[in-house]
Write a structure and sequence with these properties.
Length: 189
């Protein structure tokens, strides 16, 4: 397996400085969440570091590359190719960063929309992405940050509620997976 330093060096050349900073923030936050909730800390760090590794690809190319690599692309993603940075990220993690662990790859795949019945690691990356220290101020972020260290499921519902409200307020189409994830965690809270 590639060592952590090499992973960081490679990532740095593939994304912008601000995005790299965000990735380090997600790595550290995911590690802290792993301590508290009893997850594998090294896996949390790697998934956090690499979760946005495909973010630097121009929007148009995201769709081309996803199709070229044979990734499943639904019609919603065809119309909103930026969402594909998650699936493409898992692909690059596998083939450019030599990550074979399926839980890490799934955590990257589902970091933007979440999915029903997430693994502990998937939940941690979903939450860490939203609460890491470099995030611009978001409504109720202080409360969400506390929830993250107390009850992940309550925290996930809160994040999804905020995200859905935000997407609705900006008239952005909502991915069916985002909606399904919300419904699942609201009824299992
Ligand atoms: O990559 P990051 O910026 O760190 O965070 P992310 O992977 O959660 O991506 C955030 C973007 O994804 C944000 O601009 C909103 C968008 N997004 C999340 N859920 C949905 C969505 N966009 C659409 N169209 N539909 C969704 O359901
Ligand atoms: Fe992302
Ligand atoms: Fe991110």
């Amino acid at each position: 397996m590639m060592n952590h330093e090499k992973m960081m060096e490679r990532l740095k050349t593939n994304i912008k400085a601000k995005r790299f900073e965000h990735s380090l923030g997600v790595e550290y936050t995911a590690a802290c969440l792993a301590y508290v909730h009893g997850a594998d800390v090294e896996k949390a760090r790697i998934a956090g570091l690499l979760h946005d590794c495909a973010k630097g690809i121009p929007t148009k190319e995201k769709l081309e590359k996803a199709l070229k690599h044979g990734l499943p692309v639904n019609s919603f993603e065809k119309n909103n190719p930026d969402l594909l940075h998650a699936k493409l990220g898992a692909y690059y993690a596998r083939y450019k960063y030599e990550i074979k662990d399926i839980d890490i790859l799934n955590a990257i795949t589902y970091h933007t929309t979440g999915r029903p019945d997430m693994s502990l690691l998937e939940k941690i990356i979903y939450v860490a992405d939203y609460i890491e220290p470099n995030r611009k101020p978001i409504d109720e972020l202080d409360i969400i940050r506390k929830e993250a260290f107390i009850d992940l499921n309550i925290c996930i519902v809160h994040i999804l509620k905020n995200t859905l409200e935000y997407l609705e307020s900006t008239n952005t189409d909502i991915d069916i997976m985002t909606q399904k994830t919300y419904e699942y965690y609201v009824s299992n809270e």
